[in-house]
Amino acid sequence: MLKKVDMQIRKTNVIALDTVEMVLKSTYISQTAVPGQFLHVNVPGHTLRRPISIADVNRETETITILFKTIGSGTKKLASYLPGMKVNALGPCGKGFPIDNEVPSNVLLIGGGIGVPPLYYLGKTLAKKNINMISVLGFQTAINVFYENAFSQFSDTHIVTNDGTYGEAGFVTAVLDKIGDYDRYYACGPLPMLQAITKELDHKSGYISLEERMGCGVGACFACVIPTDDHGGYKKICRDGPVFKAQEVCL
Amino acid sequence: MLKKVDMQIRKTNVIALDTVEMVLKSTYISQTAVPGQFLHVNVPGHTLRRPISIADVNRETETITILFKTIGSGTKKLASYLPGMKVNALGPCGKGFPIDNEVPSNVLLIGGGIGVPPLYYLGKTLAKKNINMISVLGFQTAINVFYENAFSQFSDTHIVTNDGTYGEAGFVTAVLDKIGDYDRYYACGPLPMLQAITKELDHKSGYISLEERMGCGVGACFACVIPTDDHGGYKKICRDGPVFKAQEVCL
Amino acid sequence: MMDLTAQLPGLNLKNPIMPASGCFGFGREYSEFYDLSKLGAIMMKAATGEERLGNKTPRVAETPSGMLNAIGLQNPGVDKIIETEVPFLANYDISLIANIAGSTIKEYEKVASAFNETDKVHALELNISCPNVKKGGIQFGTDPSMAAEVTKVVKKASNLPVYVKLSPNVSDIIAMAKAVEEAGADGLSMINTLTGMQIHLPSKKPIIANKTGGLSGAAIKPVAIRMIYEVKQHVNIPIIGMGGINTADDVLEFLLAGASAVAIGTANFRNPFICTEIIEALPEVLSKYGFQSVQDAVGKGHDIE
Amino acid sequence: MMDLTAQLPGLNLKNPIMPASGCFGFGREYSEFYDLSKLGAIMMKAATGEERLGNKTPRVAETPSGMLNAIGLQNPGVDKIIETEVPFLANYDISLIANIAGSTIKEYEKVASAFNETDKVHALELNISCPNVKKGGIQFGTDPSMAAEVTKVVKKASNLPVYVKLSPNVSDIIAMAKAVEEAGADGLSMINTLTGMQIHLPSKKPIIANKTGGLSGAAIKPVAIRMIYEVKQHVNIPIIGMGGINTADDVLEFLLAGASAVAIGTANFRNPFICTEIIEALPEVLSKYGFQSVQDAVGKGHDIE
Ligand SMILES: Cc1cc2nc3c(=O)[nH]c(=O)nc-3n(C[C@H](O)[C@H](O)[C@H](O)COP(=O)(O)OP(=O)(O)OC[C@H]3O[C@@H](n4cnc5c(N)ncnc54)[C@H](O)[C@@H]3O)c2cc1C
Ligand SMILES: Cc1cc2nc3c(=O)[nH]c(=O)nc-3n(C[C@H](O)[C@H](O)[C@H](O)COP(=O)(O)OP(=O)(O)OC[C@H]3O[C@@H](n4cnc5c(N)ncnc54)[C@H](O)[C@@H]3O)c2cc1C
Ligand SMILES: Cc1cc2nc3c(=O)[nH]c(=O)nc-3n(C[C@H](O)[C@H](O)[C@H](O)COP(=O)(O)O)c2cc1C
Ligand SMILES: Cc1cc2nc3c(=O)[nH]c(=O)nc-3n(C[C@H](O)[C@H](O)[C@H](O)COP(=O)(O)O)c2cc1C
Ligand code: FES
Ligand code: FES
């Protein structure tokens, strides 16, 4: 269940260009969050909260990790916060990646830029189920790359940069036919990436995590809808998502 | 000349109920400010600056002291600032109390509540000229009283509280006929106090310091005008004041 | 004990606080945060004759002390709302206000009369300020005679008190208020959002897919207070005030301006508990400024001549 | 090097930045902070036929991301302005825009023709949005035909290009813009302030002595952008944009919406250097978003069909 929580910042760290890793203490979130869920983070002085994915959870230390890119005034302010200070969030929001007994034994994780974080907690969780994983992580350029080692702990990890300054050159789709076999993919990243992937991998079972500008973050305001295939209706990304079956939504 | 300066907070101290004393480092302001001038203080997140009087200046340490009451969101935020942090201000603003060779040898300082601060720097300055001073300082109630000792250093100091919980009971006007002789008064405080004083002491030479809601603080926006006696015109409190001859303005 | 009650046509409120239409859905999501019975009332999301899918996304954007939205009246249609949402809300001890919208007068009439079928709804809020409701190019919400016309039709169709929700995007708010009062409105609800736009620099396009959106939040509070204050002096029907309320102090400001009850919209997004927190804070704020009750404060910002 | 110039009727600007009328007096105070020649132009404080003393104080109040003001056109009268203020400003290498106001059409005519006596002023900004300028109870600023009338009179009286300053407090900003364009306006200046109010809880009275005041600052930027965007599609005269500009990014947003130059008002109060800082920051912002010049960005937020 969604709660409003105050979390103390335990650690903050710039891990790549304009990319901050923040560790937060929250008993409730650490015990309830599943991979793919997000926090709706309050930034004082701002009318709207900021949705940020849960990138990792540590149930022993009762901490969670978020990773965010400093884009505008909200994330910049958040980045200026120091350990000891408190961050207020609604969470865990939305539905995560389905991690049931049906998960096939070979899966592919595809992350683009700041879409990479939720896949980390997913990968760590799947690793405990002994799932074989391949990760394809795309970034703009070398100084944006993060979490390569982290993903290598549980997966065969391929880094792609748009400009070829690190790993393979091009978009994540450039390497999809060069990697091993898999029966399902999980993807998170910018819309064009998701559009390309769902098209190219339309024969595969896949789950994608979507972004949209949000109001409430809890399903009440209808800001974050996405058209679904069935009866011309919509789903709410904040409540029914952010993870959807690739075939379920029209990108 | 008015400048925009960043000042580092050296010390902050709650000296009475909701009353903060803040010591700020500024070479420029400390070297140029005269008693009665004010700072137009920036409070991040606010559209308008806050006018706060200069309560003391120390040219050796290059610091200035301000005293403010936490009234609304601006002063509350300012009160939360810690030593080491910076405060931006325009200053020194306005014209101060005239301290020329004409100052008579016996003067009266009358301060009401948060109108007391500018009189302190005035008193200290006059003391160096060997002027005899009587101070009448009015507060609402005992826990609001501040700077009694400080004023006692250079003047015969009388404290008045509205409810009589400290010093004399009533308004500052209650003691005006019980004190020694003086040839000029300097007053700062709430409008009703100034109205009562200028009426009661209309036979005396006097200077009063006024407050008004301000926009620019520099004389450009016409927000802070006060009617003057001559030709039905107005003066600007921020630029022509905040100190005026008692007879010069219509309260 | 502070008397927080408020009596308005059809609405017997235990306190003057209700979530504003469109900012609270049909209450389900917020019912997970607190017991909705704590509220005075709920203004439901707009109902139209048929299901509406609304606008393309992005539908919201943040602005200084406010936000823009262009949801586009997405809702499952009035029948579905009566069937599935009203019964859910009827479980709570609150007044229910149905916000009704349409593209034609006929649609308004249909939606209004549909609510006659349920006895769980206590009043209608007639949303004439929705930008895509036009007739002959003029919006119902900006033309006094058209506003009066739709008010009359809805009053006739409905057996419930009707609160007309006024748009602030007008030259003369008093003329609008008087027109709908004369047409039979039982109350006013004001203000709806100010029309605004934000342009996204990287894409060089308006952020909101619909281009323009409605500005809400603290930024518009001075406009809301001004309009309520002005209208209060010219009408004899009660006003439900809204626009940028974030604190119990804000509520008192609306009461002083002339509102008899208030609605809270945008502030729910930052703080899902905002309505209950304000209900709890209100007694102290009222007594701090010398009021014995909510009723006591209504209109007290006006000179008493 | 980035080309910051902007050419508008009567105004040959080295950059598109100017302080907005009423927020910069006649430049004297800010000339102590920086060399006014850095500015593109200055919009002077309103001039009326005779000296005006303005409203009672308080005249300003702070609001969320904005402020209210009701100065009430205080100024020394047009003759004194031409005699003492214009010569001071003529020392600087900038364009001068005189903001003119009045209570009657006759007064507008008088003020406008007075500026024919000096060759130091390059354009007039016709302030028809001042709340105390009425005729038959309707404001010039909210009635298209009356706005057209005063525009015609001023155009006839003056030998300078006339920019009509539009009020945002209208139902139909496009109708206002088209009416004054047809009446001969050389340009538009928009927006003036939104009418608002704030009630002071301790005194239970409006804070502003005049009760209502004009809302300015970041809070109103979305309304300004929307109106400029809409008007741009319906007129062929240039727009000087204003309303809540605080950064060079904001300036670009106004250019994309359709403004050819911009004015900065309220932001001067927090930061007296705001105009020069924005002038310095603008080249980088323009090139960051792929523009070669100011001119290049004007209107680029509109779909190119
Ligand atoms: C479900 C979900 C999960 C996300 N997870 C992450 C994450 O783990 N790390 C990360 O860096 N970013 C993530 N994002 C994107 C993140 O929300 C935005 O980068 C952030 O809101 C930008 O805020 P700002 O104040 O810095 O930018 P501004 O542009 O100043 O924000 C203005 C407004 O736009 C919204 N906004 C701007 N960009 C986005 C966006 N891409 N998606 C949604 N709203 C946006 C803001 O929330 C705010 O309301 C996620 C978004 C969603 C929807
Ligand atoms: C020349 C001058 C000198 C002053 N010196 C001092 C001083 O030394 N110590 C001190 O505590 N106070 C002083 N004041 C009053 C001080 O400016 C206000 O208490 C302060 O601005 C309140 O800000 P706020 O954000 O806490 O209150 P809010 O009520 O939230 O402020 C809202 C707006 O109203 C303005 N405002 C509110 N009260 C006043 C007021 N009394 N005078 C002017 N503007 C006001 C604020 O500046 C702001 O623009 C002085 C005022 C003036 C004009
Ligand atoms: C996301 C959103 C959706 C809204 N939907 C509706 C609606 O369906 N019907 C309506 O009458 N008003 C709607 N409104 C307007 C609000 O009910 C309210 O009048 C306005 O937002 C001002 O109040 P606030 O500043 O507290 O949000 C909506 C506002 C927002 C922010
Ligand atoms: C204190 C103040 C005084 C103003 N005086 C005038 C004026 O005399 N004439 C005028 O046309 N506009 C006047 N305005 C409006 C501004 O010129 C400008 O249109 C408005 O404030 C919006 O811009 P901003 O948000 O950048 O301030 C005034 C605004 C303020 C804040
Ligand atoms: S953000 Fe409100 S419904 Fe998703
Ligand atoms: S505050 Fe602007 S003139 Fe005094």
UniProtKB/TrEMBL annotation, chains A, B:
What InterPro entries is this protein classified in? Cyt_c3_hydrogenase_gsu (IPR012165), Dihydroorotate_DH_ele_sf (IPR037117), Dihydroorotate_DH_Fe-S-bd (IPR019480), Dihydroorotate_DHASE_ETsu (IPR023455), FAD-bd_FR_type (IPR017927), FNR_nucleotide-bd (IPR039261), PyrK_electron_transfer (IPR050353), Riboflavin_synthase-like_b-brl (IPR017938)
Q: Which Pfam families match?
A: DHODB_Fe-S_bind (PF10418)
FAD-binding FR-type domain sequence ranges: 2-99
What positions does the entry give for FAD binding? R50, P51, I52, S53, G74, T75
Q: Which UniProt keywords apply?
A: 2Fe-2S, Electron transport, FAD, Flavoprotein, Iron, Iron-sulfur, Metal-binding, Pyrimidine biosynthesis, Transport
Q: In which pathway does it act?
A: Pyrimidine metabolism; UMP biosynthesis via de novo pathway; orotate from (S)-dihydroorotate (NAD(+) route): step 1/1
Claim: Protein transport is one of the keywords in the record:
no
Its family remark reads: Belongs to the PyrK family.
HAMAP family found in the cross-reference section: DHODB_Fe_S_bind
Please describe the quaternary structure of this protein: Heterotetramer of 2 PyrK and 2 PyrD type B subunits.
The molecule here is called: Dihydroorotate dehydrogenase B (NAD(+)), electron transfer subunit
* Organism of this sequence: Virgibacillus alimentarius
Give the encoding gene's name. pyrK
